[in-house]
Structures are given as C-alpha cells and as structure tokens.
Design goal:
- Helix 1 runs antiparallel to helix 5 and helix 4 packs antiparallel against helix 5.
- This protein has one domain.
- The protein is built from six helices and no strands.
- It is mainly alpha-helical and 170 residues long.
C-alpha cells in the first residue's frame, strides 16, 4: 500500500502523461481538461477522503464537507475503494452538498440549484466531450490510487462488524 506522498507524486507525474496521451485525438483543450481532471481527482477526490488524509486536509476550510462521508463510509470499503462506484459516490456526495449549500445560500442571492442545473445542462450540450473526458480523468486517477494500494477490487468483509463495535473502535 502506497503512502500519501507516493500517491501524490504518482498523480502529479502521471497527470501530464495522461493529458499528453489524449492530445492526438482531443487537441490542446482535451489534453488540458483530461490532465487537470486527473490531477483534481487524485489530489482532491481521492478514495482516501474516508480518513484524515492529505486529500482531506487539502480541502482546507471546506474539509468539514467530508466529515459526514468519513463517518458513513469505512476506510477501504467497497463504497470508497472500488472502481466506478467509489468515484460515482464521491461525486454524487459532492453534488448533493453543493446543491444543499446553494439552496441555503439562494436566500442571500447566491445561485439557486435550478441555476446550477441549467449551467450543467449548458456545459453538457456545449462540450459534452470535455465533460466526459473530465469524468474519465477523475476515474483514471482513482484507478491509479487503487492500483498503488495493491488491490483495485476490495473484497467484501466476511464477518460484518456490529454498529456497537464500530463506534468503540473510533
């Protein structure tokens, strides 16, 4: 299993290579989008957001957003450390928080959830290819993380812990 520093070094080094791989098919904008998405996924949306990790600390003053996620998701569980499902869950979690905050903030003039949805629909219709490349880049960085940890497919635990034992452990 790689350390946080090793995950960061690999993410930074491979984000440029990952972007350059896409250059012949997508040009500069696609290469930049894929490389930045890979970097964003590895440094800020890592599977290790379920613990007090470097990615969690990078959120700075906003790291409280991930506190409920840490309480709900066990470290290295199928929900956090599995291909596709882990990334989808983290993105959905983040979208739910942005929606809730924008709904609360709309009372003071910030964009409403409906406006965010409208902007997302416009981004999809105007540049669906770049959006897909961004999502693929985020997922690719998660795969790098899982491969560095040594097992890209976590196993379901044979003997589930009772909620009482789980609470005491923390």
């Amino acid at each position: 299993m790689a350390s946080g520093r090793e995950h960061d070094q690999a993410t930074c080094a491979l984000s440029l290579i990952y972007g350059l791989i896409w250059w012949p098919w997508l040009g500069f904008s696609g290469a930049a989008c894929s490389g930045l998405a890979f970097l964003f996924g590895g440094l800020l949306l890592s599977p290790d957001l379920d613990i007090n990790s470097r990615p969690y600390q990078r959120w700075g003053a906003l790291r409280w957003l991930w506190w409920p996620y840490q309480r709900l998701i066990r470290h290295r569980s199928v929900l956090s450390h599995s291909p596709f499902l882990g990334t989808t869950l983290r993105l959905a979690y983040l979208i739910c928080f942005v929606t809730a905050i924008s709904w609360l903030g709309s009372l003071w003039g910030t964009p409403t959830p409906r406006q965010w949805l409208s902007w997302m629909e416009k981004a999809w219709t105007d540049s669906s290819g770049l959006v897909l490349i961004g999502l693929i880049g985020i997922e690719a960085s998660a795969w790098l993380h899982l491969i560095q940890d040594g097992d890209p497919m976590p196993r379901l635990s044979i003997k589930p812990q009772s909620p009482m034992k789980r609470r005491r452990r923390r």
